[in-house]
């Protein structure tokens, strides 16, 4: 575990957030941003426009970081006149600027624009070198962890909104294909599929309590820190209605912070402890065989792949055995359909192959189940820090709907 003292090697920046109010100074009840996906890295981002002339900051979304991270060039001789923040046409006028803590005057709002300044927060760490392992399209990381300096917490405090946010991750590479972005909501629902729809998906969320991990699993933490990630209590796993036979102790978090289940937007696919993975693949393969779906040679990084020619197409993806995470709460289960279970390849030699989108994490995993991005896509995942619960719905996938349709209903400021 890295020490917080390592942060002394980074430049500490402040996070200045400004909200451009509607006419009459009325603050909207909800805030929203678009989510874009890079299919090469299988990562999810949101974008802010900063400065005049405008500079785009594309930040990786992270559910489990203590801080936000931004890569910027070193500022040696800042100009005497303060630059301005300009919102792009038709974009949510929520902008983020990273400025030196010693020079807060470098940030101001665009002229003639009514603003409600938010307190500056010592929460963004800036580096002058690109961060390894993240897409070349990004300038850093935006934390959505359970910390006071996370964007949802700042918005909640300063605009008196409920401290909750919801993700609807897109499946399409929105760097290449515009118009298929997902949505990131702040302050709670309603969540409508389209502007004409009357169905509020916030009313049909299945909820389960969040669980506190007594030990931090973040890359940077100190002894005694609790985890800022979002854990939930999976009590059992079922494939096609049949429970897995696994050691139940793997599903709970022990005193050392090992075990349990968490959500991650950084892991592209769900990562399982090896004993859970083997049991799931064995049962899934048996259920698939009963549906006349043969297993084929694996394609890395997956260990279980199948012949897609024997899978019928449905509104919820290829027809394969469903997988359920049985959770704490009355009738609380997260059902994963074929669209979120099976991974296809663009290489023509694998045109008839679909792989089970779970990865073997080995025997020494810190967390037994890490639910990754693929399994969360085209679902609404709401983190409610008021009631300390997580809500979700598989309804969009089961109805053949996508998060790009939710993106069209983001509030206009």
Automatic annotation (TrEMBL):
One of its GO terms (cellular component) is extracellular region. Keywords: Secreted, Signal. GO terms for molecular function: aspartic-type endopeptidase activity. The keyword Signal applies. Residues 44-393 form the Peptidase A1 domain. One of its GO terms (biological process) is proteolysis. It is found in: Secreted, Extracellular space. Residues 1-23 form the signal peptide. It holds the Pfam family TAXi_C. InterPro entries: Aspartic_peptidase_A1, PEPTIDASE_A1, Peptidase_aspartic_dom_sf, TAXi_C. Its main location: secreted. It comes from the Eukaryota. Belongs to the peptidase A1 family. This is Peptidase A1 domain-containing protein. It comes from Carnegiea gigantea.
